[in-house]
Amino acid sequence: MTSAGGFIKSIESGSKHLVIKRFTLRYPEKKLKFVGDGYQFDPKRGVGIAGYRGRHILMHDKCTGCQLCAIACEGIAEAIGMVKVDEQWKHNKKGIMPQIDYGKCVFCGLCVDACPFYALFMTNDYELSAFTKEHLIYTPAQLAIKPKYQGDVEIVIDDRGATHG
Amino acid sequence: MTSIEEKFEESKRLGLQIVKESEEDRLMTLSVGPQHPGSGHFRFVIKVDGDYIVYCDPDPGYVHRGEEKMCEYRNVIQNIPHLERPVIHDSANITYSYSLAVEELVGIEVPRRGQFIRAIASELNRQVYTLYWLAIYGIFLGHSTMFMWPTGDREVIIDLLEALTGARVTHAFNIPGGVRNDMPEGFRDRCLSQIRYLQKRFKEYEDIFYNNPLFRQRTEGVAVLSKEDAIKLGVTGSVVRASSVPFDVRKAEPYDIYNEIDFKVQYMKTGDCFARSYVPLLDMQESCYIIEQLLDKMPASGEVRAKLQPNPKGPPGESYRRVESGRGALGYYIVSDGTPKPYRVKISVGSFRNMLALPYLLVGKRLADMPAVYWSLNYWPVEADR
Amino acid sequence: MASYPRDFRFGGFVVSLIWLIFWILIIVALVGLPLIFIILFYVPLPEVDGEVLTPYLFLTSILYPQSAIPVIETLLDTTFFKVAVFPGFTYAALIAAATIFIERKFLAKMQLRVGPLYAGKIEGILQLLADGLKLISKEIIIPSGSDKLIFWSAPIAFVATAAAVVALIPAAPGWVVADIDVGLLAVFAILGFFPLIALLFSWASNSKYPFIGGLRALHQLIAFEIPFILSALSVVILSGTLNLTEVVESQIQSYWFIFFLPISAFVFYISSLAELERIPFDLPEAEAEIVAGWLTETSGMIYGLLQLGSYIKTYALAALFVILFLGGWAGPQIFPAEIIPESAEAIIPVSELYEQTDANAAFWFTLKTFGVIMLMLLPRGISPRIRIDILLHTGWYKLIVLAFINMFVALALIYGGVLGPGGLLVR
Fold first, then answer.
1. pLDDT, tens digit, for every residue of B2-17?
2. C208 touches chain B (CB under 8 A)
């Protein structure tokens, strides 16, 4: 009667889980915490700094309009286009800055790798949904806003199992 | 397209005289097509006589996106994001092989710590893929709990990979020259605790799924693939290891630092559906041991990425490298003509080779065995179509 | 997120309100009022205190509630109440709805996740309402080559047959819609109609996957009817009657039959899982192999009707298990003699409506039925689907042998004098 033993074991295993805490993350009341501020790249050392790859942030006081991010993205997703901005910066003679179309971006971060001036990083913000496709194109002014993301839970593993807490 | 007469000859040769040629109107043609809960992005046409399958004709190509052709228009670094899309869960392995081939072509030396981190990401991705495959295997057999538990446990590993690489799936982490960023702080302890959690969960899977008499009745002795047939058909990965051929690319042709890691190649001798579903679980156990060794032996600090020119290119030539991915041996053959963009990239995936066993195995089986056999061949439709 | 949200115009809102009021007035005036007058004037109303109840007397009960109590009492005794409310349609539908919700939450807890969460303020309570509204609003697609008459009437026949089984089940002493002397045989006769409906519907769908599913349903349902009947027959041997109310009466006087016939209870449980097409026996509906089996071509309310019928059948078979093996409504009396204290009674004499034995019986019956339903939901979280040859082998060989063994046990108990005349049971 090994099959009876197998059935009893499976019933026991299934019923054991009725007393384990659920694993589900109750989004959007609770959101996940991230370590760090987002993916960044150090051009001097040539290596990235670990972080979440969410929305980009553009430092207007460092961007020189060199277009290297747009050139890197051309072969991947063609999501970065350079547009003229009204601001006058000494280091940005041409007056152009990148605008990113999040309808096309694949969030690979190779544009961040391409920037040699510490101007383009990625942040922890991933809640980018919009009602129209035009709202997904983020202008340089929109990209300069620092995101406000509050994450408060993370995966906790204890003796009884894992849960989001 | 073989005709039905040739298939009858084939089944006669295999000793399965199912239907005589004059009774062809007894057969019913079913298209287990892309709009079927039991097939994925894949279609195969089967002819059924009552409850027995007489003929099977796989029809892949529904997700073909021209990956190999797209590689010719991008330079070697820009190829990474689209090359990892064929298998989104296992993306570290499919770009690992590409990076190895490009490094051989261009002549880059990867720093030691970078090799270790690449191997850790590859093993974690193998676990993520195998858990997802196991979940779908459960739901194909009607076991909804076995669908939910591995999918939930996969979240633990994906959380870990998110901390390491920055994205949950399709990490774009391996590039020619190493990896893109170093490990974050606290990664080592987090990784070890999550590996221990996963090892505890394997016991639950065995209790409710593998030792369940109903599952065993459905898969033991079904669709046996003998050792000679497995080698003749050229299947790879967990399918060939379940037919008592202990072949693993990590042991047969070690790449990077796999010759310093001590692990066993898990294989089973029976070659039926149960063995093919159990070998990936054993592989996952081995992965846990490998990750522990990797974390121990890793150099405490060092470079993780070799510095490259903006458009890396090498002398004209060709290279072929392969790795062991979740489905089997995954190889890249790259031909370069001295420019930054490759001249030809050919990807050889394990799924496509495993698919060749499908018409051979399904003839003579019941209709109810069809999802069990089909998914046990460790087939990922998107990867097979590239 | 593919559509634009339209801008709110107050004029449009007012216009839609006016249209709503207009249609309500038209329907009330042309349809509602004549209907009320027909009911109040032509349907024979009960006599109250020597006078025939007129509509005007009816309206005075708004001012003097205690004059409505005798009316409600007479209503509670009518057959219509038994058919529509308890233990008839409303009761069965409420239990079926609660079953669906509890099944989803229970399975979710076993699978370490949350079930329905967002419909309704508390943990998805209104999910069923949302699903029902969704199914009603969907388009019903009829395949072109299908047999329209059977395609439309088979789901209705399914629900009607399930409701017919519910009509034979007593929930409390005296509370049964159809008190037939051969109640158990009638249940089996009606249950034998289900394979026919499944086969007709699958043939009428004119498609390959429903055809395979319908054949599988036919094989499965017919194969498991025999152990079903045989295991219930051993209960008949012990209690000596086919009338379901008297089966429960004979259990109240002695012990519950599950102690004497455990193997029979097990066979009955497995056969009822197979009759309900629940996992592990849901081959006719196997998703990964034959899309959705004989339900493939259903959409919208036809699918809703089939699911409703399936869950009403679940309640019916679980209630049958409780009646045959678990003692029906037997249980300690926990309801007090009066539910409202003396002082409040002068205004509204509700205690005439409330019989404590009946309320107690209904409570224990419902509790035990829910227990058996939870037991039927458990295999869904634990086992995979079975294959057809193993299923037929189990149904035709193993279960019939076990049912026969138990029948011999029952006969031995009777002729050995343990039960029956001279023993524990009074027949």
1. 455 566 566 656 555 5
2. yes
Distance, first Cα to last Cα, chain B: 22
| Cross-strand pairs, A57 | A121
Q: For residue C337, what pLDDT is reported? A: 63
**Most confident region among A5-19, A62-76, B119-133 by mean pLDDT:** B119-133
Distance CA A55, CA A75 (A): 20
Q: Give the chain C residue nearest A161 (alpha carbons).
A: C112
Q: Considering only alpha carbons, which residue of chain A is nearest residue B73?
A: A75
Q: Does A35 touch chain B (CB under 8 A)?
A: yes
Calculate ∠ Cα A55-A58-A59, nearest 5°: 145
Is the pLDDT at C344 greater than 80, yes or no?
no
Minimal Cβ distance to C381: which of A14, A22, A26: A14
Q: What is the DSSP string of B125-147?
A: HHHHHHHHHHHHHHHHTT-HHHH
C423 has a pLDDT exceeding 60:
no
What span, in angstroms and rounded, lies between the C-alpha atoms of C407 and B199? Answer: 48
Residue B37 forms contact with C (CB below 8 Å): yes
CB contact under 8 A, B180 and A72: no
Burial call B300-312: b when 16+ CB within 10 Å, e when fewer:
eeebbbbebeeeb
**CA-based nearest residue in chain B for residue C115:** B148
Provide the residue range defining the domain that includes B376: 67-223+291-353+371-385
Percent of chain A with pLDDT over 90: 1
Torsion angle defined by CA atoms of residues C175, C181, C183 and C188, in that order, rounded to the nearest 10 degrees: -170
- Compute the distance between CA of residue B96 and CA of residue B331 in angstroms, rounded to an integer: 10
ipTM of the shown complex? 0.86
Domain count, chain B: 1
CATH number at residue B99: 1.10.645.10
Distance CA C319, CA C313 (A): 10
| Global confidence as pTM | 0.86
* Mean pLDDT along residues C393-409: 87
Estimate to the nearest angstrom the gap between the alpha carbon of C273 and the chain centroid.
Answer: 15
Cα C374 to Cα C106: distance, rounded to the nearest angstrom: 9
Residue B238 counted as domain residue: no
Q: Report the candidate in C374, C359, C352 with the shortest Cα–Cα distance to residue C329.
A: C359
Contact B362, B370 (CB under 8 A): yes
Q: What are phi and psi of B84, to 5 degrees?
A: -90, 0
Fold (CATH) for A22-164: Alpha-Beta Plaits (3.30.70)
